[in-house]
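Today's session is about reading a structure prediction critically. Students often jump straight to the picture, but the first step is always the sequence itself: look for stretches that repeat, for charged clusters, for runs of hydrophobic residues. Only then move on to the predicted structure, which in these notes is written as discrete structure tokens rather than atom positions. Here is the chain we will use throughout the hour.
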Amino acid sequence: MGTRDRIIDAAEQALHEFGIVGATTKRIAHQAGCSEALLYKHFPGKEALLLAVLLERVPALGPALTRLRLSVGRGDVAANLTDFAVAAVEFYTSAATIASGVLADPSLMERFRSMLAQTRTGPHVPILVLAEIIGDEQRGGRIDAKTDADAAAALLMGACFHRANLSYFVDLPDDTPTWAAAIVDTLVRR
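Below is the predicted structure for this chain, in token form.
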């Protein structure tokens, strides 16, 4: 395993053990068995390291969106969207530790926002991509043309985000696939 991967692994571990405030670059470097200077050689700042953890260690939405895009016009559209919704809940549940810590630190949040703007990434991108996919399915006649694709994408992602956050506060039934199917059915009902 290379130094960069060791640093990302150490950051992920530190985030789980100490939260975002306690996951200092000094602590992460120590856990990775390297100097802080070497950490900064691989990552320009803590926010870039956090983004690497999100993109490389948390179950990602990218592959789920790719699978969904490749399924346009194929298979059962509701089942395809349900599989995506399950992946979105898993992503939001895993990303909550990092996201809540970033939100709690105004200066880190500002740097993170700036970095997201520079890299043209962020939490809005999967919603835009999902809306495009829903639009493609509409043009193929698989989703009602009257459905507002942007609203449907926002509602589906918002529901997934909400379910993930609820899981931190209450014990939810272990029925995410069934829950996701009901949400999708409501959104794409013809």
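Discussion point for the tutorial: Residues 77-104 form the longest helix (28 residues).
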